[in-house]
Amino acid sequence: APFLIIFISFLASVITLLNRSNYKRTRDKKFWQVSITITLFSALFIVCNSPVLAHNLFQILIIYSNSNRMATIAAKNPFFYWYRFVISYVFCTVFNSTMNP
Predict the structure, then answer these.
(1) Angle at the Cα of 94 (from 81 to 97), degrees rounded to 5?
(2) pTM here?
(3) Contact 81, 75 (CB under 8 A)
(4) Nearest to 46 by CA among 84, 86, 81, 14
């Protein structure tokens, strides 16, 4: 759910920034700078948490699929089997925390 909320916020920010081109006043320039910062942090969150979303969706596919094809794909690939959790939950979350102030 947080991923979806941040993604919608990111899209709204990008659309707002692209539609506004007149930033002559100082207040408008500050708004532009703050909006760019928020958009960059949102984009970083989305990039860092996309593997978490993909991992969760893959787990849902494995659990609710009628065939065992998905489960065998995960079991046959040792890298995928052993490291998908570590990469998606540990590395990407720590990377996101490191990059965001």
Answers:
(1) 150
(2) 0.67
(3) yes
(4) 14
At 42, the amino acid letter reads: S
Each residue's pLDDT tens digit, 57-76:
877 777 777 666 666 766 67
**How many residues does the structure list for the chain?**
101
The candidate with the shortest Cα–Cα distance to 38, out of 14, 15, 20, is 14
Q: Which of the 8 DSSP states describes residue 100?
A: -
Q: Is 6 exposed, middle or buried (0-12, 13-18, 19+ CB in 10 A)?
A: middle
The DSSP line for 17-33 is HHH-----SHHHHHHHH
Write the single-letter amino acid at 93: T
What number of other Cβ atoms are within 10 A of residue 95's Cβ? 14
pLDDT, tens digit, 9 for 90 and up, residues 9-61: 888 888 877 776 666 666 677 777 788 888 888 888 888 888 888 878 877 77
Condensed to tens digits (0 to 9), the pLDDT of residues 30-41 reads: 777 788 888 888
